[in-house]
Specification:
Structural class: alpha+beta
Order of helices and strands: EEEHHHHEEHHHEEEHEHEH
Shape: globular
Number of helices: 10
Helix content: 40-55%
Number of strands: 10
Strand content: 15-25%
Number of domains: 2
Largest sheet: 5 strands, antiparallel
Length: 295
C-alpha cells in the first residue's frame, strides 16, 4: 500500500516566499489523516489582516473533501493514489486562498502506517508533543454540540417559490431539476441535485438548500456544490469569477447552529446566496446571458 504525506503551509508574503508550516496530511490507500495547528494558524492569520476568512474557508473545504472521499471509500468505491488529491483540486484551493495555502512536495512513507505514527510525524514536522496536547485540550474546550432538532416551516415554501419564479421561467432554456453525477459528467464522483444550470460563455446555475437538515449535512451539500462549480470550470475551461452560481436559502431562526452556518455561507466566493423571494433573479441572469443546455 502506497503512503505519502504533504505539509500544509500558509504564506503571508507569496512574493518573498515566506511561509509557516501549519498542518500535515497523510494519505495511505483509502485512509487519510489531517491535522492543522490552530496555534500556528492563528499566528499567521494575525499577519493576513483581511484574508483570514479565505484561509478558514479553504481549510474547511479540504477537510470536507477528505470526509467525502472517506465516506465514498466505506461504500466500496476506493480511489487510487493519484486521484485522492488531484492537481486540479490543489489549484482550486490555491485560487480561493489567494495563493496563501501551499502544499509541500509529496514524500513517500513506509507501509503499515497508523494513527500513532501520524502523531509522531505531526510532532516532528508541525508541533511538538507538549504543544500538541495543549492544542487538543483547547479543541476539546471549544467543542460545540450541534442540535439536530431544528426545523422551519418556512422551508416548506422554498420549493414552491423556486418552482413558480425560477423553474417555470427557464425550463425550456437550460437544464432544470437535474441530478449531476458520473453518468452525465465523467470523473464526478458524487451525485448532486441542482435546480437549474446552463452555459453560454460562462455558467449560470442555482441550488436550493433547505435548512431543516443538520449542520453536518448542510456542510456536505454546500461542499458538493462548491466542488461541482470548480469541477465544471476546470472541465470546460471557464473563469471561476465569471460564473453566476446561486445558493437559494432562507434565513433560519437566530441563535441556532443553522443560523451560524447561514451567516458563514454569505461569505463563500463560489456563489451568491439569495432568499427564495429573490429566485427570479436567477431566471433574469439566464435570460440576460442567453444560457442554454450543454449536456
Amino acid at each position: 500500500m502506497k503512503t505519502f504525506y504533504t505539509i500544509l503551509k500558509l504564506s503571508p508574503n507569496t512574493i518573498a516566499g515566506d511561509s509557516l508550516s501549519i498542518g500535515l496530511l497523510v494519505c495511505s490507500g483509502d485512509e487519510y489523516w489531517l491535522k492543522i495547528s490552530e496555534t500556528k494558524k492563528n499566528i499567521i492569520k494575525k499577519l493576513l489582516v483581511n484574508k483570514t476568512k479565505s484561509v478558514d474557508f479553504v481549510l474547511k473545504q479540504l477537510e470536507n473533501y477528505l470526509k467525502q472521499l472517506k465516506t465514498t471509500s466505506e461504500h466500496g468505491q476506493l480511489f487510487p493514489l493519484e486521484r485522492f488529491i488531484t492537481a486540479d483540486y490543489i489549484d482550486y484551493l490555491n485560487i480561493y486562498s489567494n495563493g496563501l495555502l501551499q502544499f509541500s512536495k509529496v514524500s513517500m512513507l513506509e507501509d503499515n502506517f497508523n494513527y500513532e505514527k501520524f502523531l509522531k510525524l505531526y510532532s516532528l514536522f508541525i508541533e511538538k508533543e507538549s504543544e500538541l496536547k495543549l492544542s487538543l485540550n483547547e479543541e476539546k474546550r471549544n467543542e460545540i454540540k450541534l442540535s439536530t432538532n431544528h426545523y422551519y416551516e418556512t422551508d416548506l415554501n422554498i420549493n414552491k417559490k423556486v418552482q413558480l419564479n425560477l423553474i417555470q421561467r427557464v425550463e425550456n432554456k437550460i437544464h432544470t431539476e437535474i441530478t449531476l453525477n458520473h453518468s452525465n459528467l465523467k470523473s464526478l464522483y458524487f451525485n448532486i441535485n441542482v435546480d437549474c444550470i446552463g452555459l453560454n460563455g460562462s455558467f449560470v446555475g442555482a441550488k436550493t438548500l433547505s435548512l431543516e437538515n443538520t449542520v453536518q449535512t448542510l456542510e456536505k451539500n454546500v461542499s458538493h456544490y462548491i466542488t461541482l462549480i470548480a469541477f465544471l470550470s476546470q472541465q470546460y475551461k471557464k473563469d471561476l469569477d465569471k460564473n453566476n452560481f446561486f445558493l437559494i436559502t432562507d434565513e433560519p431562526e437566530r441563535k441556532t447552529p443553522e443560523h451560524k452556518f447561514w451567516e458563514e455561507m454569505k461569505n463563500v466566493p463560489s456563489f451568491e446566496m439569495i432568499p427564495s423571494d429573490e429566485a427570479e433573479k436567477v431566471a433574469e441572469v439566464v435570460e440576460e446571458t442567453g444560457a442554454t443546455k450543454f449536456l
